[in-house]
Amino acid sequence: MPARHPFSYAVVRVVPRVEREEFINAGVVVFCDACDFLAAQMALDEERLLALAPSADVTLIRRHLEAIPLVCAGDATAGAIASLSLRERWQWLVAPRSTILQLSAAHTGLCEEPQVELDRLATLLIHWR
């Protein structure tokens, strides 16, 4: 029987008007310490975003969303945060903040392969159409 590993995930949310607390899901981040895995998938539904916030700066939001997978990968272009350990990058990503991009509370589970779990969660939570 394949080994099952504990993992955590959080949903990336675009919150165009923080005071209204309305959001759309735009990504998923999965962290599995046992597999040295931290990765994200992003998919911004611009039509839904603009229905929620017609004056949203889609270009800026996309640029910030594109930085999350770079942080996960430890890519130097993501800045100083990318040089932190995998666990520290995960903790930085899920730290509470009141900005246009917010991550949900961390959820946990067991998986055999974290990439498969990331794909499953992305389909369920952001590619649901």
Order of helices and strands: EEEHHHEEH
Mean of residue pLDDT values: 94
Specify the biggest β-sheet: 5 strands, antiparallel
Strand content range: 25-35%
* Quaternary status: single chain
Radius of gyration: 15 Å
Content-based structural category? alpha+beta
Strand and helix layout:
Layout lengths: L4 E10 L9 E9 L4 E6 L3 H7 L5 H16 L12 H9 L6 E3 L3 E5 L2 H12 L4
Antiparallel strand pairs: 1-2, 1-4, 1-5, 2-3
Quick description:
This protein is an alpha+beta fold and 129 residues long. The protein has helices at 46-52, 58-73, 86-94, 114-125; strands at 5-14, 24-32, 37-42, 101-103, 107-111.
Can you walk me through this structure?
The chain starts with a strand and ends with a helix. Strands 1, 2, 3, 4 and 5 form a five-stranded antiparallel β-sheet that branches. The protein contains four helices and five strands. A hairpin with a 4-residue loop joins strand 2 and strand 3. It has one domain. The chain has 129 residues and is an alpha+beta fold.
